């Protein structure tokens, strides 16, 4: 196990433990990560106590129909935008009945999409009182961009859960 993998595992264990202690839950809406966030979460023993589930909304129309992103928002700003990420996180939180919703959307590459460079990613976490979005400019191949997105959204979730504890 690399140092990065150990850090990721520690992050996940801490996030799951905090949610368990508080009786809170988590749901995911993933685009470019295609289920990798859910897979990372479900690698953690005992996560079934906190992980409600997730949706993979790779196609733009599914972001609206499954994750609750307003269709007019998608028409105005497109699928790779901070407002779309926030709406994905909020929508999955509401639709899956979770305390927190996480979302990933972006361009994994190798080519740009609709004028947006590969490696441009937005991750979001929505809680009971706060929605946070981070823009990422990731480098590397498709796998590196996707893995960096997973790590970033889990870090954002851990930060938000810790802040909402206070």
Q: What fraction of residues sit in β-strands?
A: 15-25%
Number of domains: 1
Run of helices and strands: HEHEHHHEEEH
Low-confidence stretches: none
Q: Treating each run of at least 4 consecutive H or I residues as one helix, how many helices?
A: 6
What CATH calls the topology is Maf protein
Name the overall outline: globular
Q: Could you tell me the number of beta strands?
A: 5
CATH superfamily: CinA-like
Calculate the mean pLDDT score and round it. 95
Distance between the termini: 33 Å
Report strand order across the widest sheet. 2-1-3-4-5
Which value, in Å, is the CA radius of gyration? 15 Å
- Helicity range of the residues? 40-55%
Main β-sheet description? 5 strands, mixed
Domain CinA C-terminal: 15-159
InterPro entries: CinA-like_C (IPR036653), CinA_C (IPR008136)
Protein name: CinA family protein
Organism: Kribbella ginsengisoli
Please characterize this protein's 3D structure:
- It holds the Pfam family CinA.
- Residues 15-159 form the CinA C-terminal domain.
- This is CinA family protein.
- It comes from Kribbella ginsengisoli.
- InterPro entries: CinA-like_C, CinA_C.
- By secondary structure, the chain is α/β, with parallel strands linked by helices.
- It has a single domain (3-165), classed as Alpha-Beta Complex (Maf protein).
- The protein is 47% helix and 19% strand.
- It is built from 6 helices and 5 strands; from the N terminus they run αβαβαααβββα.
- It has helices at residues 3-22, 36-42, 60-65, 71-77, 82-95, 142-165, and strands spanning 26-30, 51-56, 100-106, 120-126, 131-137.
- A 5-stranded mixed sheet has the order 2-1-3-4-5, sandwiched between helices.
- Helix 1 packs parallel to helix 6 (142-165).
- The chain is globular.
- The N and C termini lie far apart (33 Å).
